[in-house]
């Protein structure tokens, strides 16, 4: 690893740690509620303990809003309690700067449910374009909440002029809301009437799905290993559902010819080329992002002529035999990225951070909408494996 890379990693680690410190703010305020005698013994401490996880990149941004409601329902409506809950609603949520450059925000209009917490918008990382306006809005909203009737926190933010984030629906899907600069949201502009949809929700009786949203990702897990059965087909960015590679299924599962043991080839610790740099972290495939992918290297290849296809037909495939187990090559890279992320969870024993980075990278590849060699290279780079030869079927 070059000195430059090491310096970059140290800088990045310091940065991540600095941002991580944001979490201490709502945690200590909620802990203090227990000391002040609010709630049954231990309840405030338990709630406080659940806060850091809700602010991590891997969590849904809706989680912290649920916890904020819980603070009020379990600890009461004293102003000190409400202030602590507001601190959580307005807290900055972490995201993995290796993988994405904008924060995640909850798009569930039913959250938070507590009237005292509605119309409050979160702080965002100062590195995000537009953060000045959003952070000013957040400070304002803490004392003077914005109109939030029928609107999710994400929709309130957009209404107040900040849309540089990824909205996440109640079910965990990333969604593009009207007014966001999503790759595929352009045409939605016609749906400018959705302000009316907001009123609808205010008047309605509990219909919770935010209107006019577009699903861009379903981070489906435990895909079950079915060949070419993508759990995410509604790809707005590409506009087309994957046509499963036709008729090759007769060949059966392509588990790759390597043995599982071959999956550990990347651990050879030779520092002599760029590709090896990605996996010099001892037993685990870590990449330059210093993420622990466990038994797997999460890289993707794009190769012609796989599995009896024409010599000119390129498809995507996981490079690691463990990731590729039970997975056929696919024309749609999103099938493969989805599979790799599933395998990190189910087979590879990857760390939560690595899984979160994979999910983030998956969303980015979907948003890119490309299907060429750069798609595979971008994926590999996002996960810290820059320089891996994506034209090779296996590593
Ligand atoms: C959103 O913020 C990111 C990170 O700062 C930046 O790269 C991107 O250009 C911004 N997007 C918009 C639409 O402003
Ligand atoms: C496995 O090996 C056979 C025989 O060498 C070859 O035809 C086939 O394409 C290989 N499949 C994979 C996935 O490498």
Automatic annotation (TrEMBL):
UniProt keyword annotations, A-Z: Signal
Bias type Low complexity, positions: 186-200, 233-250, 260-269
Signal peptide start and end residues: 1-18
Stretches for region Disordered: 186-283
Name of this protein: Circumsporozoite protein
Domain of life the protein comes from: Eukaryota
């Amino acid at each position: 690893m070059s000195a430059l890379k090491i310096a970059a990693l140290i800088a990045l680690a310091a940065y991540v740690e600095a941002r991580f410190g944001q979490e201490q703010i709502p945690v200590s305020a909620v802990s203090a509620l227990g000391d002040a005698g609010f709630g049954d013994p231990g309840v405030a401490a338990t709630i406080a303990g659940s806060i850091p996880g809700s602010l991590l990149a891997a969590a849904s941004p809706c989680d912290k809003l649920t916890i904020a409601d819980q603070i009020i329902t379990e600890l009461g409506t004293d102003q000190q309690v409400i202030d602590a809950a507001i601190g959580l609603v307005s807290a900055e949520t972490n995201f993995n700067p290796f993988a994405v450059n904008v924060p995640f925000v909850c798009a569930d209009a039913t959250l938070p449910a507590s009237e005292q917490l509605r119309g409050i918008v979160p702080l965002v990382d100062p590195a995000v374009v537009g953060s000045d306006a959003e952070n000013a809005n957040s400070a304002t909203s803490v004392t003077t909440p914005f109109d939030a009737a029928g609107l999710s926190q994400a929709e309130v933010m957009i209404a107040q002029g900040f849309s540089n984030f990824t909205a996440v629906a109640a079910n965990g899907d990333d969604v593009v809301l009207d007014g966001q600069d999503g790759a595929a949201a352009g045409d939605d502009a016609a749906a400018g009437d959705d302000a009316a949809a907001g009123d609808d929700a205010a008047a309605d009786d509990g219909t919770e799905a935010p209107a006019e949203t577009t699903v861009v990702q379903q981070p489906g897990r435990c895909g079950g290993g079915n060949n070419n059965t993508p759990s995410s087909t509604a790809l707005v960015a590409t506009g087309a559902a994957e046509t499963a590679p036709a008729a090759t299924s007769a060949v059966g599962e392509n588990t790759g010819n390597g043995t599982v043991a071959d999956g550990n080839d990347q651990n050879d610790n030779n520092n002599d080329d760029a590709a090896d740099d990605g996996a010099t972290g001892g037993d685990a495939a870590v990449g330059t992002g210093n993420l622990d992918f466990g038994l797997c290297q999460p890289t993707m290849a794009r190769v012609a002529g796989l599995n009896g296809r024409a010599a000119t037909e390129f498809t995507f495939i996981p490079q690691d035999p463990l990731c590729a187990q039970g997975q056929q090559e696919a024309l749609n890279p999103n099938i493969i990225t989805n599979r790799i992320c599933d395998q990190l969870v189910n087979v590879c024993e990857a760390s939560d951070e690595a899984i979160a980075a994979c999910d983030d990278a998956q969303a980015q590849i979907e948003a890119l909408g490309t299907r060429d060699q750069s798609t595979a290279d971008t994926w590999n780079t996002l996960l810290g494996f820059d320089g891996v030869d994506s034209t090779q079927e296996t590593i």
